[in-house]
Write a structure and sequence with these properties.
- It comes from Orrella dioscoreae.
- This is Knr4/Smi1-like domain-containing protein.
- By secondary structure, this protein is α+β, with helices and mostly antiparallel strands.
- The protein has a single domain, classed as 3-Layer(aba) Sandwich (SMI1/KNR4-like).
- The chain contains 5 helices and 7 strands.
- The radius of gyration is 18 Å and the shape is elongated.
């Protein structure tokens, strides 16, 4: 996981993470009704369990109410849900399970990752395959492991950051152009 985060520049991103207690993780799986793959358990119990990688406000400002733009301009971070003692509710594995179920996710789906600003949940099925819940349906995800999913989403986040920087330069240039009467 550390290798996946290597290209993430802390000048551009804030990274917050924390490890879960093994007993709390076990209690979560018991509530869930099935176990998650060992790869996810290992991550959850590590210092990177429950990790948020989000663009810094000065680099990519968070959208305000009624902002309009392409969907990707709102997707400024990657959230891996965790169970660290001080994890906020919006990053809490248990709270996100409850939220996904309230939104209609079936009982055999465990959300583990979300793109900040997007409504989709990435998660596991009891057979340890990854899937995406879009608020209506569950579809299989092509990633064959959590590591592959996380690598893909971090790579996409870095590409969006590059696109956002380009967009900001274009917007600044357009503001400097004189307006015609």
């Amino acid at each position: 996981m550390w290798a996946i985060l290597a290209p993430v520049d802390i000048k551009d991103f804030e990274v917050v993470a924390g490890a879960a207690n093994p007993d709390r993780y076990d209690a979560y799986e018991q509530k869930l009704g099935f176990t998650l793959p060992g790869e996810f358990r290992e991550l959850s119990l590590s210092k990177l369990g429950g990790v948020l990688v989000s663009a810094r406000e000065e680099v990519w400002p968070q959208a305000k109410a009624f902002d309009v733009g392409p969907a990707w301009t709102f997707w400024r971070g990657i959230m891996v849900f965790g169970l660290a003692p001080d994890v906020p509710d919006w990053l809490n594995l248990e709270r996100m399970l409850d939220r996904a179920r309230e939104e209609g996710a079936p009982d055999d789906f465990a959300p583990v990752l979300k793109v900040e600003g997007d409504g989709h949940f990435f998660g596991y099925r009891p057979d340890h395959t990854l899937a995406v819940f879009n608020g209506y349906d569950i579809e299989p995800d092509e990633a064959d492991s959590f590591t592959a999913l996380y690598r893909r989403e971090i790579t996409a986040l870095l590409a969006r950051l590059g696109d956002m920087k380009t967009l900001q330069v274009e917007r600044a240039a357009n503001k400097k152009k004189p307006r015609l009467p």
